[in-house]
Amino acid sequence: MKKTALFLILTILIALTLGACGNDSTKTEEKEKVDKENTSETTTYESEDGPVEVPANPKRIVVLSAFAGNVMALDGNLVGVDSWSKMNPKFDLEGVEEVSEDNLEKIIELDPDLIIGLSNIKNKDKLNEIAPTVTFTYGKVDYLTQHIEIGKVLNKEEEARAWVEDFEKRAKETGEKIKAEIGEDATVSVIEAYDKQFYVYGDNWGRGTEILYQAMDLNMPEKVKETALKDGYYAISSEVLPDFFGDYVVLSKNEEADMSFTETDTFKNIPAVKNDRVFEVNMEEFYFNDPLTLELQLDFFKKHFLNK
């Protein structure tokens, strides 16, 4: 009798164990099936070049120019980025490879399922053979609409729109406070020292120009309007640099820039310099106009214009 009871108990335990294993196996198979379906699902993005079928949930994204910060802000998984993005000290790109459209073999090795870049990249046809490729013409839409378009590509338009609406509100409020602090008529210049050349910027060329001139509606010096507004930037020599200084100046530079001019009496006697209204920024951090960089720029302007 005891042997029969023990046999029954063992039989029941084995049955329960097999049943649990079966359930785990079924759950694993179902999860793998869902993951596969999510990976294989696609959506259509209406690009400048026509409709492009892109992954609904891209897993391995390569950005060849300008838009790495947009993808990062939307939690996209980057496997390759352009050199300028890679050198940005504020971008967390550890483990992400540096790539270019000239090195197709490297891109193939990364096995991307989506490629994003500017419309002037080379080898676009060959890139399309590697993965769906979406490109944008810089400045064709404004910087905030651009983020929404990236959101559409990544199937995250709702998240992109939510950030844009919130940022617009915060930037406008900060701009109103800055105007109250520096005066309605005060002018602001954005100038960059790169190598041995200086550049002055319009209202859509990164470096904080979008926030200062578009979101905050601060004033641009007339000389800047005449030369840089149309093309976005204008190259100038150090000799005429004082002519382009506003009441306030955002001076973008990197370590290699020739800043010897700042030691001259001509520079030191510029009103913005004498009044300590020149705010230096790291070019590599301020270069872009993606959400991550825009947040950095907005915080910088709060601190330097409002002492906050």
From TrEMBL:
Membrane-protein topology: Lipid-anchor
Annotated PROSITE patterns: FE_B12_PBP, PROKAR_LIPOPROTEIN
Composition skew (Basic and acidic residues), residue ranges: 26-39
Pfam families: Peripla_BP_2
Gene Ontology annotations of biological process type: iron coordination entity transport
Gene Ontology annotations for the cellular component aspect, listed alphabetically: outer membrane-bounded periplasmic space; plasma membrane
Domain Fe/B12 periplasmic-binding, residue spans: 60-308
Protein's name in the database: ABC transporter substrate-binding protein
Record's subcellular location: Cell membrane
InterPro entries assigned: ABC_transptr_periplasmic_BD, Bact_iron-sidero_bind
Location (main, coarse): membrane
PANTHER family per record: IRON III DICITRATE-BINDING PERIPLASMIC PROTEIN, IRON(3+)-HYDROXAMATE-BINDING PROTEIN FHUD
Region (Disordered): 24-52
Gene3D superfamilies xref list: Nitrogenase molybdenum iron protein domain
Protein family membership: Belongs to the bacterial solute-binding protein 8 family.
Leader sequence segment: 1-20
Native source species: Cerasibacillus terrae
Keywords: Signal, Transport
